[in-house]
Amino acid sequence: MARLGIDKDFLHEFTKLEKPVQERVTRALTKFGHVSHAGAHLEKIADARDPRFRSIRISDFWRGIVLAPDSGDSYTLLTVRPHDDAYAWARRHRASVNAATGRVEIRDVAAVEDSMPALSRMAETAPTRLFDHVKDSQLRRLGIDEQTLRFARVLTDSTQLDAAKSFLPSNQWDVLFGLAAGYTPEQVWAELAAEVTEEEFDTEDLDAAVERSSDRVVLVDGPEELMAIFRHPLATWRVYLHPRQRSVVEASYGGPARVTGGPGTGKTVVTMHRAHQLATEGEGTVLMTTFTATLSESLRTGVQLLVEDPGVRERIDVRHVDQLANRIFREHHGPPTILPPEKERQLWDSVVAELEVPFTAAFLGEEWRQVVLARRIGSAEEYLNAKRDGRGRALGSRQKARVWQAIWEFENTLRRRGVWTYETVCVEATRLLEQRTEKPYRHVVVDEAQDLSPVQWRLLRAAVPEQPNDIFLAGDTHQRIYNNRVSLRDVGIRVVGRSSRLTVNYRTTAEILAWSLGLLRGERIDDMEEGLASIAGCRSEVRGRHPRLLGFPTKNAETEHLVTTVREWMDAGVQPGEIGVAVRSHRLVDTVMAALSAAGVPHEKLLGATDGTEQAVAVGTMHRMKGLEFRCLAVVGVTEHHVPPASAITPEEEDPAAHRRDTQRERCLLFVACTRAREQLVVSWHGARSPFLPAEE
Ligand SMILES: Nc1ncnc2c1ncn2[C@@H]1O[C@H](COP(=O)(O)OP(=O)(O)OP(=O)(O)O)[C@@H](O)[C@H]1O
């Protein structure tokens, strides 16, 4: 029976085809998958560059190009194009097997040949060449074949290599990119070797190479699987993991492990696959968790898509961390009466007034969370001796005694009234779990780890016994958007020696990523292990438009322009659901919604997770944007005094450390918003621009 494979690049192309063409493709391939003599549907192409290319009829006007190896029975769809274009593609491209990885690769041979004469001429007069420092034998060992070798030898600078990204085989381009970026051949080999076995590959056996190429070809078992892939083509992660991601997913760890990486590097994808893997191993229930309801909702959708076996799916419990605390609490005490945040603030105010302590309610609330709860302090003595890292304002012992008095009064009032805050529910649930010998979970997998608070980490630690593969966490401290900071070590989670970093961004173009990274330049950001985190090396290999920065005299002019931009995107074929508008305040959400309404543009307020299938432009606060992505994104109202808003920043004179921390958090929030854009980003303001934006260029 024939096996159909779909090349990853085609899935990206598929999303951009018009609906009727997509339907034709699905129909043609479903028919193809049904017959036992699949070859019967394929036609030889007389002048194809690669004799193993065949064409498949999609409609009168459209053709697909399929790779049909000489032996074996697997067929891989490489591209679908208008008739003439498809044949032209087949005349330019060739498939081969990479000697180092044993995987299939496709290259535009004609483009390599066309660019050689000019590059050779330039190289003749250049004093040095890009790869002078690397021997031929080293390049060959890294999988560079003869044609790419000749090409690499005439390169004189890295912009020429950048331009070759679109036509060289991608694995080989990656190797050259690494070497040009200053990595030694050994370092590049170490990256490759982590992904492949030390096996001799038969570079003629394309069929075996297709089987090995799970990073670029998905082999489809039957029409239903094919339909599922085409229904969610953007969920390419469902079927593909980069080998580096796969090694993180499949590793066995002696204890807690974590993966870090900049935005869009696939951390969420990795956590879902990790949960799937652990649930498949079947040692017990996997808790998959994060810090908000919206995010856990999108994890749940992802898990449903990814995990087909209902038995395995049942072993993955997706819930956000406060939900877990609430569940454990209820099991023992029934539902808690929660004191809402504004009431909590009033309670602090009344404590301040009653005891006449010289501190603000905000200061006391933060001291309680970040010192008392975070360090599990239960007595005045413990508080007097406690480290107060990260708390700006120094306190003498008499001041500490007064703070403690206020905190004691606050906690005592909660007890007396029988009310709880989210934090105290979490603390109580942790106490209950610590008493249990039977823990509710065998594994815990955490996404967006940077935003969990110390009390939440303690809860998770208590929910799973300490053993191999107990906790797996993914996060990026550059994307922290709440005030929670933690030292993992302090909460009993040691990941030393079990940390991996992902560096390739799959979401955003290189232009958008580079510009967004510039927003954080110079910031010192912790790594949750008492050191500093680095985002160096985070890169995207997809090129696109530069972000557009636009200032307007008035808010009206800015929103009018936003409407025009959204219309232009839609006219260019972008679906409304693929467009997002991010703003800092709820009030601006309403303004933008009103402007889109008046213009008749379909839109909706972002309340929960979205997978881009809604037929409406998503408008939401920057906080709501976490974990999402949009093909085109406008970040609006990035105006002085609005980003950051004065209300979100502790005045410097009141507490310089808190001021720095708040400012950094707001900067990170803008960074998170901007890195949600996949292809196009527009950042605008009215009046003076936000101090976070680079000054006029
Ligand atoms: N190996 C891969 N090949 C192709 N696309 C990938 C791969 N891994 C991830 N992606 C895609 O990249 C995008 C970003 O992935 P994901 O959301 O997991 O990143 P992240 O690191 O969690 O991002 P962030 O921290 O910004 O929320 C998604 O569209 C995902 O489908």
From TrEMBL:
It is an enzyme of class 5 (isomerase). GO terms for molecular function: 3'-5' DNA helicase activity; ATP binding; ATP hydrolysis activity; DNA binding. Its EC number is 5.6.2.4. The keyword Transmembrane does not apply. GO terms for cellular component: cytosol. GO terms for biological process: recombinational repair. Keywords: ATP-binding, Helicase, Hydrolase, Isomerase, Nucleotide-binding. This is DNA 3'-5' helicase. It comes from Actinopolyspora mortivallis. The lineage of its organism: Bacteria, Bacillati, Actinomycetota, Actinomycetes, Actinopolysporales.
